[in-house]
Amino acid sequence: MVAKRSLCLLLVAALSSKCSRAEEENQCGLYLATSSTSTAAEPKWGIFAGKSYSKQSRIGFGDIAIHTHQMEANALSGEDDEDLLTNIVDFFENFIWVPHPVGGQFELDEGKVVTAIPGGGTLSCFNPKMTNADWNHSSAFFREPWNEEKGVSHPGRGSYSTFYEASIHATDDIEEGMEIFISYGENYVNENSDDNEELSKEDMKKVDMTVNKIVEFFEKHQDELDEESKNEIYQFLIRDVMQAAAGEGKGKIISEVLPDTPDELRAVIASGGVLDYSQPSLVRSTEWLEQHGRCMDNIRPGPSTIPHAGRGAFASRKIAAGAVVAPTPLIQIPDEEVLNMYDVKVEYDENDGTEFHVRNGNEVFGSQLLLNYCYGHPESHMLFYPAGAGVSFINHSKKPNAQLVWSKHPNHHSHWFQLEPEELLEEGNRYLGLLMEVVATKDIAEGDEIFIDYGDLWQEAWDEHVKEWETLKKRGVVPKRWPTRAADLNAEFATKPYKVGANYPENVQMKCFLVISKPVDEEPMNANGDKVRIWTKHKTKETFDSSNLFDCTLIDRQDVDDTYEYSVSWRSVADPSKQTIVKHVPQKAIIFVDKPHTSDQFTPEGFRHYIQIPDDVFPEGPWRDAAVAEDEE
Ligand SMILES: *[C@@H]1O[C@H](CO)[C@@H](O)[C@H](O)[C@H]1NC(C)=O
Ligand SMILES: *[C@@H]1O[C@H](CO)[C@@H](O)[C@H](O)[C@H]1NC(C)=O
């Protein structure tokens, strides 16, 4: 690989740039490998850049987002199995929790939505000093309507997630081989770490500047200082002065990170700063990644070639028979019951009166959509949520070109096969210790759709569902014409102007990304007493971020050049009697979302079935805790 690349570079000089481009596309852009934050006691996967990413560019491909509704409340049964179920929810939500990058917070009007976003979302580690990536909300909100099939009532409705293109982008230039750390949000940092104990990237820059100054100082006074006084001054600088300047907590970390003697400071500068000096394994060589990692961007999403199947996974480069299509760490779910859905009700905490939700009765009315993305086996109560990038887009075929196998990576813990399902969540095992790989069973060309076999039971259940759907449609239980969804309207109004005063369907809600400033050439208050503001782009933060998304109503429209601007009315939730008029809102800042409880996922007749791990792959032993197949015969 490396030899090929340098050869390529030589040829580039001699011939044309074609060679380098082709080679670049073949080069893996993203690897799954052991994180720099991994320890023997708690192994962690990480994501590494296989090529350099410039600031603001997208990392990998957009992924699917699967919303879970009230998972915790559904687990609070008041019965004996509650401990296990809440334990599973805890573990699961540790990895998975952000509805905001894709708009999941609008799915329920009360209660908790936790959104599973595989790939970058679940697997990139947390390291507040090193954050170099963040969600790009607009890529999911303004996703292209791949196979949305406006108005068509087909059996795929409600059986797959309609949320996708959940993407992360670089917030800094990222060099080849660097580990990717996503921003967990300010709240997370505040809740989960003592501010004083962490060095931010800004801190690191300041320390680097100080290191330079210290080196200059010792150079200047080289002749006057002997070794002993040099060391004495150095210790004084890095301990007492640093603590006085940075505070005790941070000062202590800084002195631990810096070398013991001033002469070694040059090594800090040479390695590119204190950050790289203190954590050299943050950057891995391509050879290391090739050997110890697994390429994670061989597949990209697109509209599936199967009718009514929504999105599918396609080869982004050619993949030889036997090669890994995609790696996928699994999140172990010891009891499938955790995905059952019940009616829920509000209760109040005895001590502080805070509101929370619990199960109301024990009648199961459905399953979380997540079930359709989990791997399972008919002889087991266990499920496994695959967290690999793009893997959840892979659809089913009886003539597949890929299959699921266990990985031979040393961090795949096949000794877990001998543990009881519950043991997989015991202290000491609460990490992602299972790795599967989707492996090509045939040569796959670039652009081919990837298929695995979901199993005979899945196929039977699906065939049954398709028949049932047609019957229900005839009887009018499911609509003959599917209601218009937010995604349909967003596609329609990508370029077409909105009509002021138009009636849009009841099940959608218009929202505007609003960042505002006071007007300069008009009064900040109009004759009716409404505040007047001007739409503006955020100077330092992302404007198209869902924290800036508010309900809005169009008041008027101006045609500007080849696009449109609107004045909109915005009312704060705190005081809806007052409105603010925001002027010059661009077309691209306006979007529809589905109202709570209305998106396709809520279809009661939606299909639910796990994807089967092939029988010869699913381990014998304690995981086969359900022996249903034999009982039924
Ligand atoms: C976010 O994604 C959108 C749509 O793909 C793109 O136009 C925009 O440049 C991206 N923004 C950043 C900051 O990466
Ligand atoms: C395609 O895959 C999705 C996700 O696993 C699934 O929900 C859907 O039913 C599949 N469709 C077909 C036709 O296989």
From TrEMBL:
Residues 1-22 form the signal peptide. InterPro entries: H3K4_H4K5_MeTrfase, SET_dom, SET_dom_sf. The keyword Signal applies. The keyword Lipid biosynthesis does not apply. Gene3D superfamilies: SET domain. Residues 297-455 form the SET domain. It comes from Cylindrotheca closterium. This is SET domain-containing protein. It comes from the Eukaryota. Keywords: Signal. The lineage of its organism: Eukaryota, Sar, Stramenopiles, Ochrophyta, Bacillariophyta. SMART domains: SET.
